[in-house]
């Protein structure tokens, strides 16, 4: 929790960016408002293009945890504070889940603490999911608990109830990466039970899998059945390198300030503007293990091997496979498996006495990662160097502690701490240092920032008292992203907080023909000159156009205006 507060030192709205302010916040608010009126939102004809909520997919319509988020959002007067609290709760939950999962591999609490602390701080979670793609952060935070429950099923210590509950909470969020991860780990643990000839646990895992498969049908089938008429109605496979992590970038995983090769529409050039491929600084400590001991241990880790291999393969997929896009979204699952594997190997298969060549090999891995990071973006040489020095220092400390298990007699260990306790504290201090450096040099995620209002009252004041459906013509992003703008107009799902019935909402999939008719894009903003090039019509005779003008004169083929800013136009269609 403390480490998740570090980004707020450098940017107070860190957890309220991009798809969170444009999409998720409005979803939560509308869900909470609907629940308080005794309804579960399933369909909203007035929203038109994206009003089929179960087809849109990520509304969490059947998810009690998302419903709780909605109720809290509806009751909260401040969007940024509420969202920040919920996101930090997700990161803390992911850490606790990492700890629980690590303990299932027979790790002592000190080692499990290292896993739980490091897992939520991976670069993709901290710079993409946590600031923006909250549904990805939520399903990933729950996933370690599901994995741990499956391992208990495999050991014959549980009935399937809790595995189903945690799996249900993941699937019903509607974020497909989480459901794919469930499929991977069900397959991994299921195969492991068959190898062990544990027939009763195998049946329980199969029952859990079939049950969650039926839940997935309820959640995703509406999207599949409507795909042909939406913007996601594609069945092609191609690679344009957008949001795709390459193998070279994975070698930069120990360097907290390395910017990998990652194409996106948020920035120009081939490099990301944040450490999206960072996993954990201590990964090169894998060099400290005894491979013979690790080979004996490997039979207990087959599910981990399978999941890491499947997750890595997913990250390296083509960027578009039908409706699935951006394989880099699976990086948090790679990070979870990689951290878990390294820590389990260190805890249970390390060398009794770690030689200097092993230390040098680990430092060589650091040097390789630093070199690749510098080659990708030479201008970041100073921050890459500082991060590499921190990693070298931390690895040297781990090497020294693991070679001196009786350090409690050392003069500075006056509290009688064990070597493992000192190790956990040392890893915590080093992780704090790398996290501070990371956010000091990369204070924002690189995603879009609209600076939509904090106060719910500001949203409520826009188009207050307006009747009938409204189309917003013009792009709010053409104005300065400041309070004065958002007192006159809103954007995307922020309109759910307003009392006005506005057509222009965020679209995860969207109805293609209507978007073409009204020239609507995914944030709900019309394309330039939409009044001239598009036919604006609807089922109602009385229609309202809210003109968002970017010049001193706004002209419509139907109704002209000479307002220098914005005004109402009432017209009969």
Percent of residues in helices: 40-55%
Shape designation: globular
By secondary-structure content and strand pairing, the structural class works out as: mainly alpha
Number of strands: 7
Low-pLDDT segments, ≥5 res: 533-544, 547-573
Provide the number of structural domains.
2
How would you spell out the order of helices and strands?
HHHHHHHHHHHEHHHEEHHHHHEHEHHEE
Neighbour order of strands in the largest sheet = 5-4-6-7
Major sheet = 4 strands, mixed
Strand content: under 5%
Number of helices: 22
Provide mean pLDDT, rounded: 86
How large, in whole angstroms, is the Cα Rg?
26 Å
In angstroms, what separates the terminal alpha carbons?
A: 54 Å
Task: Explain how this protein is built.
The strands form two sheets. Strands 5-4-6-7 form a four-stranded mixed sheet, with no helix packed on it. It has a three-stranded antiparallel sheet with strand order 1-2-3, with no helix packed on it. Helix 5 (79-103) packs antiparallel against helix 6 (109-118), helix 8 (134-154) runs parallel beside helix 10 and helix 17 packs antiparallel against helix 18. A hairpin with a 2-residue loop joins strand 2 (320-321) and strand 3. Residues 533-544 and 547-573 have low confidence and may be disordered. It folds into two domains: 78-441, no CATH class; 456-572, no CATH class. The chain is built from 22 helices and seven strands. Helix content is 52%, strand content 5%. The protein has helices at 2-10, 19-36, 53-56, 64-75, 79-103, 109-118, 123-129, 134-154, 161-171, 176-195, 199-226, 247-250, 291-297, 302-315, 331-349, 356-376, 381-402, 419-441, 456-461, 483-486, 512-518, 530-533; strands at residues 237-238, 320-321, 324-325, 469-473, 501-502, 542-548, 566-572. The radius of gyration is 26 Å and the shape is globular. The chain has 573 residues and is mainly alpha-helical. The longest helix has 28 residues, at 199-226. The termini are far apart.
